[in-house]
Design brief:
CATH class: Alpha Beta
CATH architecture: 3-Layer(aba) Sandwich
Largest sheet: 2 strands, parallel
Distance between the termini: 31 Å
Strand order of the largest sheet: 1-2
Strand content: 5-15%
Number of domains: 1
């Protein structure tokens, strides 16, 4: 998958639904992400362009955000202290 999406190398880890045989919003995929990457559920921000998937993350105890635009996401990440502009 990486040759088609080189930006995926920016991330420390990814979960590909097709590889795992689990699709969002199945609760199991959120639990897999939390355990595989050793994440604290209340400190984890899940971002997706589909509200049903963001709602699934919320039900799993994560913070969630429905992606609508890069500008909106940038403002959220700055507000949460997760992104600093140079």
């Amino acid at each position: 998958m990486e040759p088609n999406y080189p930006f995926l190398k920016w991330f420390k880890g990814i979960i590909v639904s097709g590889d795992e045989g689990i699709i969002k919003p199945d609760p199991e995929i959120y639990e897999l992400a939390l355990s595989r990457f050793n994440l604290e559920r209340q400190e984890t921000l899940f971002i997706d362009d589909k509200s049903i998937n963001a709602e699934g993350a919320s039900r799993a105890g994560m913070q969630s955000h429905v992606f609508r635009s890069a500008d909106e996401l940038e403002k959220l990440l700055i507000h949460e202290g997760l992104l600093q502009l140079r």
